[in-house]
Design a protein that fits this description.
The protein is of the alpha+beta class. The chain has 16 helices and 10 strands. A 6-stranded mixed β-barrel has the order 2-3-8-5-7-6.
């Protein structure tokens, strides 16, 4: 593709400091800025990938891959639904649940909560909440005992601990001769969980399915049926099949339906950040063009001498293509290496920074999680590196063509 002379001279020009030192300075600045652009692009996208993955995993600690619920909020013949869904080859677990809202009262503390009635024996097949118990276990939820398991932040807000009794206020009320009286029920705190997702840790209380049916007057049926499939990322086709099967009777939602706006916002932000940061790389490419044009002007006499000694146009072309490509390759490699290293060590660096500042940088009530996760995706790194490399090489074409068409007589007229 190119003569060894082109390779030798091109590499020589890249590191040459003779005559005009600012030529090498321009090359160095181009490499540094290109490296920073690539590094930032990899780190920021890795952080956004990490946030998305962490939120998804923590949501799946509480909910199943697919939820089947009635349009009126009830699934009456849920045993039939469970038997039918279990026949699907991709389904590995099912469990009914009852969901309702209300308030919890302990002494002078009152907080709104979401109550979830579960069957402890079946719940482990559709969620990982049992793996995140701080105190107690799901097995301690016994029918008729009216025990409740609270999220850690909710227990902290109420100031309640295991073994203490709290009062549940349900949305329904009893009509008596004395007037309308809200329905109250005393529960005993038997456990505390922490899934690391602020929305659940600060508002959810788990009770037994039978107790939920009695308290919320669900004489027949449940709120819905949770379904777990073999492959999380193949949940779409399974959901579509179940939706087609139950379209007339039930509403089928997959895990992405919950916090859909958040996931959509993250996807849009990833696209926007990629576009914005890639513009930085384009600006750097323009900088490469300007630095290469400076090199060409500085080497006009050298080019003219090589042309008079018999160098062909394509030889000159390749000299400057190689020089510009070296800037692109070195900048891309350094930026990729720094970006991947920083992304892989970002969480530990963030933890060290929090300890140093002695403060919580990320507010979990705003960002849903309290740490700074990072997920390096190889395909993204490859796309970023190749796009940067191609862009930087293309940027050298114009200066290289300019150099290859320099007229030796014009270049040497004033030498």
């Amino acid at each position: 593709m190119f003569h060894p002379v082109s390779l030798f001279v091109g590499l020589r020009y890249t590191r040459s400091k003779r005559r005009n030192g600012y030529v090498s300075l321009f090359s160095g600045v181009s490499i540094v800025t290109l490296s920073l652009g690539v590094m930032l692009l990899i780190v920021i996208l890795s952080v956004m990938n990490g946030f998305e993955k962490e939120v998804r995993d923590r949501i799946l600690n509480m909910i199943a891959h697919i939820t089947i619920s009635g349009y009126d909020g009830k699934v009456k013949d849920w045993n039939k639904v469970v038997n039918e869904v279990t026949q699907h080859p991709e389904v590995v677990g099912t469990a009914p649940f009852i969901s309702a809202e209300g308030m919890l009262i302990y002494k002078r503390q009152v907080h709104g909560s979401v109550f979830r009635g579960i069957d402890p024996d079946l719940e482990t097949s559709v969620s990982k909440i049992g793996d995140h118990m701080v105190v107690g276990s799901l097995k301690e939820l016994l029918p008729g005992e009216f025990g409740i398991i609270l999220g850690q932040d909710l227990a902290y807000k109420l100031g309640v601990d295991v073994g203490q009794k709290i009062t549940m206020v349900t949305p329904s009320a009893n009509v008596t001769p004395a007037g309308v009286i809200p329905r109250l029920k005393r529960f005993t705190v038997i456990g505390i969980f922490k899934v690391g997702f602020f929305e659940y840790d600060s508002s959810v209380g788990l009770i037994h399915l039978n107790d939920a049916a009695r308290v919320f007057r669900k004489k027949s049926g449940v709120t819905g049926v949770q379904v777990q499939v073999k492959d999380l990322f193949e949940v779409g086709p399974v959901k579509d099949q179940l939706q087609a099967q139950y379209e007339q009777d039930y509403w089928v939602k997959d895990w992405s339906y919950y916090h859909k706006n958040w996931f959509s916002a993250v996807a849009m932000e990833k696209r926007m950040m990629f576009s914005i940061l890639f513009i930085i790389i384009l600006v750097v490419s323009i900088n490469i063009i300007s630095s290469m044009i400076t090199v060409v002007n500085d080497k006009r006499s050298d080019i003219a001498i090589m042309r008079t000694l018999g160098a062909k146009t394509r030889t000159i072309l390749w000299i400057f293509l190689i020089q510009g490509s070296v800037i692109g390759i070195v900048g891309t490699l350094i930026g990729t290496a720094l970006g991947v290293w920083l992304s892989l060590n970002l969480e530990s660096l963030y933890t060290s920074l929090e300890k140093l500042l002695d403060s919580e940088i990320i507010d979990p009530s705003v960002y849903l999680i309290s740490n700074l996760p990072s997920d390096v995706q190889i395909e993204q790194v490859v796309v970023i590196s190749l796009a940067t490399l191609v862009t930087s090489i293309i940027a050298t074409i114009i200066p290289a063509l300019t150099a290859s068409h320099i007229n030796p007589a014009e270049a040497l007229r004033y030498e």
